[in-house]
Amino acid sequence: MKTIRKSQQTDCLTIYNLICDMEAQTLPYETFEEIYSRQLENDCYICLVYEINGEVIGCINLRMEYQLHHAGRICEIMELAVRSDRRSQGIGRCLFNAAYNEAKAQGCLQIEVCCNQLRLRTHRFYEVCGMHNFHYKFSLSLTQTGDYDNKLGR
Hints:
The protein has one domain: Gcn5-related N-acetyltransferase (GNAT) (Aminopeptidase, 3-Layer(aba) Sandwich).
């Protein structure tokens, strides 16, 4: 049976593994768990999981906030991850559609997502979902000096 539901504290380790796989790096679990727990308690965040027969195989993490430059509430996809052996099976699209419906129900004006320039396949996914690339995102590390090459797994 396939289900999309709001995540719970017991989903933390599975979501951690999904996101580490997506980022191609091992994140510090204790810090991840602390942030995840805080987000569960904050109404601005909603994390949805996709399960098959009780096993979580994908997640989408959303932040909804009021932004001055939109004069309204915006939904941002913070993370969308599907287990590597289950990609290209429509699971990401199901999660995106669930996020779209949740954002509309919460009164959001639009959905936004930031995606690394190197993730070309992911760009195509979002375009197929109807999204448009109208923005640039700039970043400056506050903890790293020197090497500013764009690479995944950082």
